Amino acid sequence: LLTEEIPAQLVCDSAVSALLRSDPMIRAIVVGADRVAANGDTANKIGTYQLAITARYHGCQFIVAAPTTSVDLHTKSGLDIVIEERNEAEILVQTGFERQGVLEGRLERVEVQVAPVGTRAWNPSFDVTPAELISAIVTERGVVVKQPGASEFDMAGHMRGE
Description:
This protein has 5 helices and 10 strands; from the N terminus they run H-E-E-E-H-E-E-H-E-H-E-E-E-E-H. It is of the alpha/beta class. The strands form 3 sheets. Strands 1-4-9-10 form a 4-stranded mixed β-sheet. The protein has a 4-stranded mixed β-sheet with strand order 5-2-3-8, with helices on one face. The longest helix has 10 residues, at 48-57.
């Protein structure tokens, strides 16, 4: 975005709702998608669904940008997308460098347990955003919008060039 001189700011997912509340000039959230179902439901990295919910609450457009290679017409809806559950250690244990070692010029990787031993973690790799929460889907072929009154997209029509 910056190379195209479009104002942009990186924000942690958990801060987006507060940002939208504090800055009414923000009119849209744009995300990618790893998979787009025939009805426009989209699977993307975990946290995308909550961004769509907060966009709706704050009256912002929620736009998905994805290549047509991500469109899967064999998948009718997001209900048909299997979500991989990743190893809970990815949440419970973090790897980094000990601060004092860095200050002294030693880069020794250490693992740090960030939750009490025995804590369980649910760690899905993706979530599915329902088409109902998506304003538009943008591909290299153009912009897909829902027909008036529709809650889903016609991705098959888009892929046929309609």
